[in-house]
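Students often ask why inverse folding is considered easier than folding. One informal answer: many sequences map to the same fold, so there is more than one right answer. In these notes we will look at a single instance of the problem. The structure comes first.
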């Protein structure tokens, strides 16, 4: 009988086949993963670029030269299926981060100053898991003041203000473009809080909307249109008659003693330095303004208000057009035993006094501007600060 021997694979041959199959499977997986990652990367980068383009468009359309505030993206900005866009912005800078549910490792970012998508985090920005750190107004100087309208935060109470450098050369000043709304107290990181009080000197009293006039007590008054905004809310840019509702940005109205920082002193009982022309003279570098900022001066030819009117209003005294459009002046009126001229007149304190009872101020109506008007210190006027 013939004997047949059945041929088969040896163990070594089987192992070689398994190794080859494993190598081929690995190469296939790597190739697939690479192609898939490239596709996902392209989608993430495309979403970031599209979102960036829309943010730049919105910045132009909103008329305030600022980006929408984070962390919520405008509803008009969408992304691809599976892509999540995270957004952080303080109005002046932003960081966009794109991730995908189809990968645990892919993440791309894009920022206002680097619009090329890159892996990692935005250089010099907060990542999208948290808000962009606020720019405190106390840290801004004339030298570092932006030349475009910028959001800044008062570290004392987190109220927000627009700021901008206005004017040219030696006459350039860094201005608040929103009326001050500080009511004393708060966080004293920069040693610039003013205590609130109940009748003693050196403290801020109010709101005293129905109170009596006073030279010796620092008082403030809050109209229904005060509408202070808190980080990260942007102030209004509406100056047409004060606007309506939240568009009004009157801030608080202060008598001159309050605007000067509720200074202590005086040679008579219950008298503050704010109410004395010479004994003792008020410290004109002190005020209710944030640290590093001060009340504007009000001299007729060289005061800050005169320089401002020259810079943005061509020195005109028959129209406040430039003050309204560039300085965003609010027609916040005044207080004198009650509120008056709201939505029609603008009144702003300076640090310049003319007597024990009077001080200089900027005043305007629809047909006149006076950068150095003389008024009683007992009135409640708005305050705009200027960087020292």
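Output (designed amino acids):
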């Amino acid at each position: 009988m013939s004997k047949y021997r059945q041929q088969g694979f040896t163990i070594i041959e089987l192992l070689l086949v398994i190794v080859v199959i494993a190598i081929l499977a690995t190469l296939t997986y790597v190739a697939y993963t690479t192609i898939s990652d490239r596709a996902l990367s392209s989608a993430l980068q495309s979403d970031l670029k599209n979102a960036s383009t829309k943010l730049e468009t919105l910045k132009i359309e909103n008329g305030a030269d600022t980006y929408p505030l984070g962390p919520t993206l405008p509803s008009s900005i969408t992304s691809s299926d599976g892509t999540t866009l995270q957004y952080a912005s303080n109005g002046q800078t932003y960081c966009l981060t794109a991730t995908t549910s189809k990968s645990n490792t892919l993440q791309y970012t894009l920022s206002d100053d680097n619009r090329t998508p890159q892996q990692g985090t935005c250089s010099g920005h907060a990542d999208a898991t948290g808000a962009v750190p606020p720019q405190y107004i106390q840290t801004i100087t004339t030298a570092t003041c932006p030349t475009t309208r910028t959001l800044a935060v008062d570290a004392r109470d987190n109220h927000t203000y627009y700021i901008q450098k206005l004017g040219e050369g030696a006459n350039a000043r860094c201005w608040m473009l929103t009326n001050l709304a500080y009511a004393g107290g708060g966080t004293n990181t920069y040693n610039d809080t003013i205590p609130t009080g109940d009748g003693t000197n050196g403290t801020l009293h109010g709101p005293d909307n129905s109170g009596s006039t006073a030279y010796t007590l620092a008082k403030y008054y809050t109209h229904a249109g005060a509408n202070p905004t808190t980080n990260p809310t942007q102030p209004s840019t509406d100056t047409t008659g004060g606007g309506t509702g939240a568009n009004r940005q009157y801030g608080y109205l202060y008598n001159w003693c309050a605007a000067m920082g509720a200074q202590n002193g005086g040679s008579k009982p219950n008298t503050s330095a704010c109410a004395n022309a010479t004994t003792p003279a008020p410290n004109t570098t002190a005020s209710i303004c944030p640290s590093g900022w001060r009340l504007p001066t009000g001299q007729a030819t060289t005061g800050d208000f005169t320089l401002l009117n020259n810079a943005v209003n061509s020195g005109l005294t028959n129209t406040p057009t430039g003050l309204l459009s560039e300085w965003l002046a609010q027609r916040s009126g005044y207080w004198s035993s009650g509120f008056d001229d709201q939505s029609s007149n603008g009144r702003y304190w300076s640090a310049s006094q003319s007597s024990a009872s009077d001080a200089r101020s900027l005043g305007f109506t629809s047909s006149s501007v006076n950068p150095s008007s003389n008024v009683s210190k007992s009135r409640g006027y708005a305050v705009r600060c200027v960087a020292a």
